[in-house]
Task: structure prediction
Amino acid sequence: MKTKDEIVANWLPRYTGTALKDFGKHILKESHWWRMAAPADQKLTPQTEEGIHEILWASTEKVKALAPLCYPSIRELLGTAGLLNPVS
Result:
């Protein structure tokens, strides 16, 4: 099994496009993703303590339009979900 340092050294630069030396102290955070539907008028609360200041429910078309602004790892996730072509 790989150590966190080994995982970070390989994964972080590859998926964020940022050199490892530019991160400073790094922390791995496990996250889980689900594809779901919800009422359009549902109140959403951004997790500001993690630097998230805006969240929204988006149509497939809006997701495709916003994808270029996402990290490569998020674009890969969207590709896996069938919403975009996977990042090479």
Q: What stands out?
A: The chain has a mean pLDDT of 80. The helical segments are 4-16, 60-66, 72-80.
